[in-house]
């Protein structure tokens, strides 16, 4: 909203109106009609006075509205730093989103996504009614929610029979956000605080020993007043803006491929030597090679961005929580425009399965403020350092050819101090020797550079330094997807900084991939719930008789926020 522009528009309209009146008082030869001069003067005076007063009223009212909205956004948002640049509809984030949680290796994303919607609206209504302080939030129990859903699905099996889901088979590995709508009546008093049943990490464990007693004494109650499903990008954005609360976000997930040509340069690469691995290169690669090896990547990178390289290869589905969008966000692969999603995946390098089905995934996430373009990468790394992300490893010895100078630079006080200030790991170590690095005590690695080779595959070079012998050399690995280096190289433990659970946990989901995923697989939609919580659901509200409020108290926490900053660098000092 531009108050000055609106004012000038009114003045321009007034000028046009005056000229029209002046024309009416002219005779056909262009001279004023008899007695017209006095009338023109009177009309001119009244018109000017009216236009000035009207313009001042619009400008003042518009400025007041903008100031009120700007102040609301600055004080109501989780990060408390949303600026006037995001007053327009091109970017929006819901305020007071509770901290992220982890589903670990269980298939309970649908459970977490649903509970997150309930937690968020409970918090928003509590703050509005002065029952909660702005920094307070209530954690609800995903364990208990899943337990109740499974019991209901046994009773109403036809409601839960969604292809690919397992809730109808008495398993929490696969469900839907919309189940709360089907079971709205049964859940009016059946959502419990997390202290009743903390989440169990073990696969498909839905037990909740204290649930029956807790349900009898549960003060939490709410109604589902409205429910809708939305499918296209612009209507999803409008629903988020208009509701002011988080929405359920359901999407297919996929893998994406890279193609590495088997040429003379990498003919000794084990991947090219594996029987049957090297197949005809796709025509779009133009590698001029006899065959290519396919290297697979997940649908996300360690920057917390969903992405693709070539086509989408279906893997399954995932439910998350939509909290914002930014039309101006530029992804690392150049895509513009994103949804901002709260995810339930752990950050770092995560091992799945057992010794026979081992799978390692490298993940990272960011804050809402970061994806809203409200803070710099330097400030972001204080809260979401993503220490395992190779993009964040401090590089030393860059563009140096003399080995001794590289060793000196990587061990210098300047490099050590700069890495600490930047919150970037400097000293690395080998975590998996099967990739050719040395997993030995006293052998460390220092990142020098990473170079894009082809098809989003990189080579990364390091200083390998043995402190036992004071001998070093440069080594290079790859080509691999950039995130893949974190599978076998990691920061030493003292340089791993944990991402803040209060602030991090958010992913960027590009609009164009959302459209493509829906067109190719279906299964992409957003659910909008509207809940109303009773006053008796809050400790500071109307107390209900014979209800146990202690469980609410023990499940209530306080959330850290990002302080407002005007500098792109952390902790700026203004001198006298």
Characterization of this structure:
The structure is a single chain. The protein has 576 residues and is of the alpha+beta class. Helices cover 29% and strands 22% of the residues. The protein has helices spanning 3-24, 36-76, 109-128, 142-155, 179-182, 211-216, 233-243, 270-273, 368-371, 377-383, 403-410, 413-422, 511-521, 550-554, and strands at residues 91-93, 136-138, 222-230, 247-261, 278-279, 292-298, 313-330, 336-342, 348-352, 359-363, 428-430, 443-454, 457-466, 471-480, 489-491, 506-510, 525-533, 556-558. The strands form five sheets. Strands 1, 3, 4, 5, 6, 7, 8, 16 and 17 form a nine-stranded antiparallel β-sheet that branches. The chain has a three-stranded antiparallel β-sheet with strand order 12-13-14, with helices on one face. A two-stranded antiparallel sheet has the order 2-18. α1 (3-24) packs antiparallel against α2 (36-76). It is globular. Residues 1-36 and 58-88 have low confidence and may be disordered.
Which key features would you list for this structure?
alpha+beta; 9-stranded antiparallel β-sheet; 14 helices; globular; disordered N terminus
Topology readout:
Layout: H1 3-24, H2 36-76, E1 91-93, H3 109-128, E2 136-138, H4 142-155, H5 179-182, H6 211-216, E3 222-230, H7 233-243, E4 247-261, H8 270-273, E5 278-279, E6 292-298, E7 313-330, E8 336-342, E9 348-352, E10 359-363, H9 368-371, H10 377-383, H11 403-410, H12 413-422, E11 428-430, E12 443-454, E13 457-466, E14 471-480, E15 489-491, E16 506-510, H13 511-521, E17 525-533, H14 550-554, E18 556-558
Antiparallel strand pairs: 1-7, 2-18, 3-17, 4-6, 4-7, 4-17, 5-6, 7-8, 8-16, 9-10, 11-15, 12-13, 13-14
Helix pairs in contact: 1-2
């Amino acid at each position: 909203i531009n108050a000055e522009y609106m004012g000038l528009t009114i003045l321009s309209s007034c000028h046009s109106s005056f000229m029209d009146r002046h024309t009416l008082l002219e005779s056909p030869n262009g001279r004023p009609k008899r007695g017209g001069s006095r009338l023109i003067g009177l009309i001119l005076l009244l018109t000017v006075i009216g236009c000035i007063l009207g313009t001042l009223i619009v400008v003042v009212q518009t400025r007041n509205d903008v100031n009120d909205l700007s102040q609301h956004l600055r004080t109501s948002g989780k990060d408390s730093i949303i600026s006037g640049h995001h007053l327009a509809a091109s970017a929006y984030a819901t305020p007071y989103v509770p901290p992220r949680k982890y589903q670990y290796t269980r298939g309970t994303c649908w459970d977490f996504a649903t509970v997150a919607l309930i937690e968020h609206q409970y918090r928003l209504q509590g703050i509005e009614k002065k029952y909660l302080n702005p920094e307070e939030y209530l954690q609800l129990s995903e364990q208990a929610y899943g337990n109740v859903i499974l019991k209901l699905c046994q009773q109403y099996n036809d409601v839960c029979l969604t292809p690919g889901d397992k809730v109808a088979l008495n398993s929490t590995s696969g469900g839907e956000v919309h189940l709360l709508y089907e079971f709205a009546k049964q859940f009016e008093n059946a959502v419990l605080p997390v202290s009743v049943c903390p989440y169990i990490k073990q696969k498909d464990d839905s037990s909740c020993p204290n649930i029956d007693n807790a349900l009898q004494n549960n003060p939490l109650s709410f109604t589902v007043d409205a429910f809708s499903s939305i499918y296209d990008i612009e209507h999803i954005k409008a629903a988020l803006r208009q509701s002011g609360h988080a929405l359920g976000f359901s999407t297919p997930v996929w893998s994406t491929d890279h193609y590495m040509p088997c040429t003379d340069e990498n003919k000794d690469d084990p991947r090219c030597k594996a029987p049957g691995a090297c197949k005809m290169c796709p025509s779009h690669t133009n590698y001029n090679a006899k065959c290519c090896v396919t290297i697979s990547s997940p649908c996300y990178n360690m920057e917390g961005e969903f992405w693709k390289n070539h086509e989408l290869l279906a893997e399954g589905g995932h439910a998350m929580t939509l909290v914002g969008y930014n039309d101006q966000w530029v992804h690392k692969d150049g895509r513009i425009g994103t949804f901002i999603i709260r995810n339930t995946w752990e950050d770092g390098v995560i091992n799945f399965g057992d010794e026979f089905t081992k799978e390692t995934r490298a993940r990272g996430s960011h804050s809402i403020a970061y994806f809203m373009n409200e803070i710099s990468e330097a400030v972001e790394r204080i809260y979401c350092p993503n220490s395992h992300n190779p993009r964040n490893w401090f590089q030393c010895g860059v563009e140096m050819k003399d080995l001794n100078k590289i060793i000196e630079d990587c061990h210098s006080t300047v490099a050590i101090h700069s890495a600490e200030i930047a919150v970037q790991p400097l000293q690395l170590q080998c975590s998996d020797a099967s990739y050719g690095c040395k997993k030995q005590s006293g052998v460390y690695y220092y990142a020098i550079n990473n170079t894009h080779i082809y098809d989003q595959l990189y080579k990364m070079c390091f200083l390998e330094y043995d402190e036992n012998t004071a001998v070093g050399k440069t080594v290079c690995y790859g080509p691999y997807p950039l995130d893949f280096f974190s599978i076998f190289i990691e920061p030493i433990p003292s340089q791993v900084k944990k991402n803040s659970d209060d602030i991090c946990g958010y992913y960027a989901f590009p609009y164009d991939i959302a459209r493509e995923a829906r067109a190719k697989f279906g299964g992409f939609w957003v659910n909008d719930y509207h809940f109303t919580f009773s006053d008796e659901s809050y400790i500071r509200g109307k107390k209900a008789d014979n209800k146990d409020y202690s469980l609410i108290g023990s499940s209530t926490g306080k959330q850290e926020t990002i302080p407002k900053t005007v500098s792109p660098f952390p902790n700026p000092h203004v001198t006298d």
